[in-house]
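Q: For a teaching session next week I want to show students how multiple molecules come together into a single three-dimensional assembly. I've collected the sequence lines for a complex. Could you give me the predicted structure tokens for the whole thing so I can convert them for display?
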Amino acid sequence: MAWLLVHLYGKVLIFWMLLFGAVGGAVVGAYIMLSGQLSSHDVRSCLTILSGAAPAGSTCTQTAFSTLDTFRTANNAILGAVSALPLVLGVFMAAPFMARELERGTHRLLWTQSVSPIAWLVKRSFACLGFALGTLSFVAIATVWWLSLGSVIWLGSSWPGFDLWFPSLVAYGLFAVALGLAAGTILGRTVISMAVTAGCWIAVRALVEVLLRPRFIPPVLAPGMTASSAGSNWFMSIAYIDSRGNVLSPPEVSAIIGNGNLESHGIIMAGVIQPASRFWIFQGIEAGIFLLLALVCLILSFLWVRYHLASR
Amino acid sequence: MQRRLLIVGQNRNPNKPGTVPAAGNSAPPSAVVVANQVSKRYGRTAAVHQCDLAIPEGAFVALVGPNGAGKSTLLLMLVGLLRPSSGELLVLGKQPSKYSADILAHVSVVLQDRPLYESLTVRETLEMGRRLNDRWDGALGKIRVERLGIPLDRRISKLSGGQQAQVALTIALAKRPSLLILDEPMASLDPLARQQFIDEVTTAAQDDGITVIMSSHVIAELARVCDYVVVLQNGRVAASGRVQDVVARWSAIADRDSQERVSGLEAALLGYMRRGGPDH
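A: Of course. Below is the structure for the complete assembly, covering every listed component.
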């Protein structure tokens, strides 16, 4: 079976390896090009100025601005390309990988040789997942390198590139591939399964990112912390706390203070944050969710083949 | 309830060692295929209805009937690609739907649409067969393909329909099967390619004593090579038995009912199909 897969998909595998190699190579190349420039005195001074920590009247040099612009452009391109890779794998590799086989009926050729339907599914699934794991790991490692560079100059207040750190990125990829395999197996139509894979993956990613991730662990209040002083914490929002420690909503705050100020009414502002110390816990939870979903997709494929395709 | 049994005749190749285990109480010990009241339903539609068959080892069976008669459904059940809704189906003494490797090693099939990997060359296709089958006869495969003038290094997608059918047949034969199942393999072939295909099947069946079940709606081409016939109509076995018995039976019916003269299998089968079987 391995021989057959290599002969059938050898050229496709080379294409994917070249694509991932190109992305990984571009990330490493950009790192090598920019790492020296970003650590220069000019750029570091400029960053201090931009963060508001420098004395008034300090200015950035043109060279420093130019370096930072180049970095931002490269950063946007890299983050965009890398974050799309899991989806690309699921939609353009995994879904057609199964659907075309069923569409053309060639699975029946194998099923009437010595390959049982379950063996057929397991071998194809593991080949696809293994390939995705290998290629994504390569890109993820290169991206972590890049992200470590970005964190030096990151001016935002959320966890930089959370979705692109190794555990999450690989888990997204494995989920996308398992989803593509399941859609291809169950729907048996190439274009439809590609569309369903894309739709489901984007929907699940958005759902987890927007609704679930902020609630993995209840956030904490950091009195006095603002977005610009959040450092490497994930700054989520601002909260108002009264003297008894109650959290007030903005309308309540408006009603209490009227035209006065917060301090006079004993109200303080606090940052609602996920502390930096939770970063890897969140990575683990996020990766765990997507790996679990990948497992569910694989089980669905198995059940479909076992109780539908192979026993019609 | 109507039960029709394809009566087991003499083995065409009696010297071949018996490879078929005992299949069932009512089936003869040398039956390769035994179907007891086998039905296959899709929702409310019965594709095959209460089919009884016992096909002897070494027989060349023509499975005939109009489109939608249930031929392909029956054959797909024999190779385990479909599961009977009810009844018992045994191939080489085992249920084909279990997909056991030991039964698959002895059963070959050529499907109507000839599913082959179009991106592989003929040589790679044969290599695939070798790697997937323990009983693979590499020499047979290569010799057949070369004898037919099919270039080994040509991709399957570049072959004609007739050549693709021959490659599919080669894969089926190189497995050295005990049972060869052919589901309308000549449907899209021109007359010359059909002739060549059927000659190849006949030769292989005679040389190796393979049991062949071949479905077709081109009765004339099967009539001269098969020794048993099963007529399916609306999912039911309308007639079955040795060719000469089927012809004789229909001749008697036709003679009795309309004094119509019947000669040959094709005329007899057409008569059966028009009438829906001798007892209708």
